[in-house]
Every structure is written in C-alpha cells, then in structure tokens.
Amino acid sequence: MTTANTGGTARATRSRTPVQMAALVVGAVFLLVGIAGFIPGVTTNYDQLMGAGHHSGAMLLGIFNVSILHNVVHLLFGVAGVLMARTAPLARNYLIGGGIVYALLFVYGLVIDHESAANFVPLNQADNWLHLVLAIGMIALGVLLGKRSLTATSSPNALGRNA
C-alpha cells in the first residue's frame, strides 16, 4: 500500500494486480456494450428491440443480435466485473467463471435452433463466435494473470518476511 499526498491530505491507495485490472477492464467493456445496446444508431433496427426472444431484430453495431434481456445481462456482467475487481481472488473467479459461462453460451448457441423459442437471449452466429472468443480470453486472463497474482501474494517477501 502506498500513501498519496493530495493537497495536504494523506490518502492510502492500493495498487491493483494485473488480474484485478483485467477484470476491471472486462467489466467496463461489458458495461459499455450493455449501454450501447440501448442507443439507437449504435444498435440498428432499434425499433425492433424486444424484451427477449429470437424475434428481436435489433443488432448491436449491425452485427450482434440483442434484446433488452441481452443488454441487461451485459450490464450485470459489467457490474460484477467492476465489483469483483476489488480483490485478486475475486477478479480471478470473475474472469474464469465468466469465461465458463460464455463457453456454455457458445455451445448453447450451436445446438439450439436460432428461430425457435429456445433462442430467448437472442443469439446469432456472430454472437456465438464472440462468445467463444470471450470464453477463451476471459479464462486465459483469469488463469495466467491469476496465477501471477497468487504467486506474488504468497511469496515470503510479499508478506513482509525475509526469505
């Protein structure tokens, strides 16, 4: 922990670990995507935005099928990322757990009929491939950066002891 002097007032600040920064950035991106899904122009066919289901014709960036439910899920994932970035273990869990959720969504998107009621999120091919990329990226960030954070915090010198 370091101390920052802000105009005569000392304030304690903590530096974030790489896994915490990754969770914070991923969470912020999800928040932006969730908000963008409600902005006409950024979301094409905005007048066709539906609560849920495959009948929503709204397309984020003209590519990704979205609905109100889909946008709310992005917003919730974003809030979770920002909140869980507070500690390295929570950040790691957010990235790995979120990556697993997106891997499951990828598989779900492959096996359902996109024109059926089972496509309640809604998903299209672009969503499916994005979910795969998100799954791989989030799990990789959580595993690789989380391992570094756990190693750094469990070393004797990190705990203030001499080796």
From TrEMBL:
Keywords noted in UniProt: Membrane, Transmembrane, Transmembrane helix
Transmembrane segments: 21-39, 59-82, 94-112, 128-146
Protein name: Membrane protein
Organism: Mycolicibacterium arabiense
Domain of life the protein comes from: Bacteria
